[in-house]
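TA notes, week 10

Several of you asked for a full example with nothing omitted. So below is the full record: structure tokens for the whole chain, then the designed sequence directly under it. When grading your own attempts, check the secondary structure regions first.
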């Protein structure tokens, strides 16, 4: 039976192990993004974009709705 707590909430909000996996992926992404700056080359930016896309796909496999909300550019 659905409760007020679980209606409309994806696995990120209802499953602790999925939340932990997604949080690790988001941490990896934050490290990648923080390595970029105004002096980054196009190659570095493209590599970061590809890694972010891979992370987005990994998150999407765990919780599609959370991934779309977090990474709208990769819908």
């Amino acid at each position: 039976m659905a409760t007020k707590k679980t209606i409309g909430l994806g696995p990120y909000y209802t499953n602790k192990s999925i939340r932990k996996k997604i949080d690790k992926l988001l941490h990896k992404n934050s490290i990648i993004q923080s390595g970029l700056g105004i002096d980054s080359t196009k190659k570095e930016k493209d590599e970061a974009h590809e890694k972010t896309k891979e992370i987005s796909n990994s998150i999407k496999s765990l919780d599609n709705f959370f991934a779309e909300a977090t990474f709208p550019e990769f819908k």
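The chain has a mean pLDDT of 90. Use that as a sanity check on your answer.
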